[in-house]
Amino acid sequence: MIKAQGLIKKFPPNDFVVIKGIDMTIKDGDFISLMGRSGSGKSTLLYLLSTLDRSFEGKVHIDNRDVHQMDVKEVHALRNQQIGFVFQFHYLINELTVLENVLLPARKAGRMEEALPFARELLSIVGLDSIAHKPSSSLSGGENQRVAIARALIMKPKYIFADEPTGNLDSINGNVIFNLFKKFNKDFGTTIVYVTHDQEFGKLAHTQIKLADGLITTN
Ligand SMILES: Nc1ncnc2c1ncn2[C@@H]1O[C@H](COP(=O)(O)OP(=O)(O)O)[C@@H](O)[C@H]1O
Ligand SMILES: [Mg+2]
Q: Which tens digits make up the pLDDT trace of 26-41?
């Protein structure tokens, strides 16, 4: 469970307030879409809820642990093993193959061998098994995105945070990714929070949250 209380985010240099006092609870197994106009604070909120940005006012608890109280080691372990991030712009390691990139989080956790069959399964689901051994430097933008998604899922994280994950994909691949999220949610009880501009994708969530000007709105 992730609980945010009185969440406020200001950006320097002028303390521009982007998140203006949000309380929200994300229950285990939730499937949440986050929508709202460009600039309403969706990406910022995702960073705050997922430990990527720990500089904020208010509280965020992840599984009853206060994010502000965690040391760097704890945060890294949490991010590596419990949280999958899918962002709009992905950074694969060019020198590695597609498969090696997917396996990177498992390698960091010393669990590469056991993760190998699942890595191949994920690549097959996203339609990239035939290029598993290609260097990732040779991929198209959409392929890049799908590799990054497989990498985010390799540890079967408890939480997945996705910021416009289908933004760079055509509708067929967008659906593949969306169905993959649904499958994780159903099979593993993975909690999913995704930002989207696409009304259709947004409506498919169990819970729809709308942001306007740094606050959750009910309209
Ligand atoms: N690093 C930053 N420094 C200053 N302002 C920022 C920074 N990141 C985001 N903002 C501002 O915060 C507001 C919300 O941004 P963002 O969370 O990216 O919105 P969204 O994802 O909904 O489009 C915008 O006005 C943006 O300009
Ligand atoms: Mg954004």
A: 999 999 999 999 999 9
Euclidean distance between CA atoms 196 and 154, whole angstroms: 22
Q: Which two tokens stand for residue 106?
A: 């498992």
CA–centroid distance, residue 118 to ligand 2 (Å)? 30
Say if CB 71 and CB 147 are below 8 A apart: no
| 60-93: b (≥16 Cβ within 10 Å) or e | bbbeeeebeebeeeebeebbbbbbbbbbeebebe
Among all bound ligands, the one having the nearest atom to the CA of 17 is 1
Tell me, using a 6 A CB cutoff, whether residue 146 lines ligand 1.
no
pTM of the model: 0.93
Query: For 102-111, what is each residue's pLDDT tens digit?
Result: 999 999 989 9
Beta carbon of 42 within 6 Å of any ligand 1 atom: yes
97 and 176 Cβ atoms separated by less than 8 Å? no
Q: Is 70 helix (H, G, I), strand (E, B) or coil?
A: coil
For ligand 2, a single-atom ion, the residues with CB < 5 A are 42-43
Task: Please name every residue paired with 159 in a beta bridge, in sequence order, or none if there are none.
Answer: 83, 191
